[in-house]
């Protein structure tokens, strides 16, 4: 199989990350001119937010289904995005001499922290290679996918060739502390909490929240994407309730919501204990901290 114009198929050895889940006084004409400028600026901002959403959404889809990357408009195109590094650079072994010895590192999108993307660092100066935990602004080209085996199963990994990388320090100061979080894409208002037993007989936290979908297409709530609930610096894991009859019957769990729709939802998390308050941190796609909140564990009813 020729390399040019086709996906790259080769066997990748030993680089699958094990920590994928392991963050006014004016004239009328003056006023009209200023107002027009503001309208243009607002429209530009909306277009930019929409373009960013589409870019990260498609990149996440490609990470989940890398074998069909050739059908994506991102295939063989330069893209710019932010991701977090997990692990250290490693060399691959391949029967293809043109690929053997290439250096890769695993990176994760904020909206898809369970699926690694493999970043080829071979064209980047070694002294500038990233370290574990770095947040990177990456300019690169989606060139295909890699495949390997892990725990007796095949794993397909999106392959991006890095052209330029820059280590970022995401915004994390002067952050609001609010029960309402609003972006260009959604509004979430935490309205109530409860403590119930999950299906395993252990204490779990129930978060009730109003979700407004501000996208132009149907969308599920962002709590599993950008919202991190923790106790003592350990992230809480989702769980399944044992008795659904004790839930608010009007609350949904994961159902998609139409554009401009707003409904009550719930999410459940396994508690580490019933004394330590819960810390909520909310991020955007580029790992900027948008909101924090401390939530007391409610007493069992």
From TrEMBL:
Q: Where is the composition biased (Basic and acidic residues)?
A: 49-58
Keyword Chloroplast attributed: no
Signal peptide feature range: 1-20
Q: Which residues form the DUF5067 domain?
A: 166-284
**One Pfam family matching this protein:** DUF5067
**Signal keyword on record:** yes
Task: Please give the InterPro entries that the UniProt record associates with this protein.
Answer: DUF5067 (IPR031989), Immunoprotect_excell_Ig-like (IPR029050)
Region (Disordered), start-end ranges: 42-61
Sorted alphabetically, the keyword list is: Signal
Report the protein name in the record.
DUF5067 domain-containing protein
Q: What species was this sequence derived from? A: Enterococcus ureasiticus
């Amino acid at each position: 199989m020729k390399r040019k114009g086709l996906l790259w198929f080769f066997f990748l050895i030993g680089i699958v990350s094990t920590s994928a889940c392991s963050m006014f006084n004016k004239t009328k004409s003056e006023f009209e001119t200023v107002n027009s400028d503001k309208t243009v600026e607002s429209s530009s901002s909306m277009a930019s937010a929409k373009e960013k959403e589409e870019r990260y959404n498609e990149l996440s889809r490609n990470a989940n289904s890398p074998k069909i990357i050739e059908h994506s408009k991102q295939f063989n195109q330069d893209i710019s995005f932010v991701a977090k590094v997990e692990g250290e650079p490693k060399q691959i072994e391949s029967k293809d001499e043109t690929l053997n010895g290439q250096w890769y590192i695993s990176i994760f999108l904020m909206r898809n922290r369970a699926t690694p993307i493999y970043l080829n660092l071979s064209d980047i100066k070694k002294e500038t290679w990233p370290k574990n935990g770095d947040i990177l602004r990456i300019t690169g080209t989606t060139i295909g996918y890699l495949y390997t085996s892990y725990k007796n199963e095949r794993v397909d990994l999106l392959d991006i060739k890095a052209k330029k990388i820059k280590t970022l320090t995401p915004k994390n100061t002067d952050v609001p502390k609010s029960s309402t979080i609003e972006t260009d894409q959604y509004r979430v208002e935490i309205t109530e909490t409860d403590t119930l037993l999950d299906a395993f007989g252990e204490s779990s936290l129930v978060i009730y929240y109003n979700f407004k979908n501000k996208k132009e297409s149907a969308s599920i709530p962002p709590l599993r994407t950008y919202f991190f609930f923790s106790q003592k610096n350990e992230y809480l894991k989702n769980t399944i309730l044992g008795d659904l009859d004790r839930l608010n019957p009007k609350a949904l769990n994961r159902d998609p919501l139409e554009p401009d729709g707003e409904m009550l939802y719930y999410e459940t998390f396994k508690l580490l204990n019933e004394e330590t308050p819960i810390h909520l941190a909310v991020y955007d796609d580029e790992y900027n901290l948008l909101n924090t909140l401390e939530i007391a564990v409610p007493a069992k009813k």
